[in-house]
Amino acid sequence: MSMGSTSLHILYLIDEIKVKGGTEKHLFELATGMADAGFRVTVFTLAEGEYAEEFKNNNSISYRCLNVTRIYDFKGLSAIFSIARYIKKQQVNIFQSFHTASDLIGPLAARMSLQPIKVLSSRRDLGYTKSDRHVLMQRYINRFVDSILANSSAVKKSVIAKEYFPDGNIDVIFNGINLTAFVTDKSCREKQRSAMNVDEQAILIGSVGNIRPVKGYDLLVEAAAIVCNKNQYVRFFHVGEGEIKEQLEARCRELGIGDRVTFLGSSNDIKTFLSALDIYVQPSRSEGLSNAILEAMATRLPVVATDVGGNPDLVENGLTGLLAPSEDSYALAERLLQLVSQPLMRDVLADNAYSKVLEKFKITAMISNYKKKYIEITKNDRT
Question: Domains in the chain, ordered, with CATH?
Answer without folding.
Answer: 5-176+362-378 (3.40.50.2000), 179-360 (3.40.50.2000)
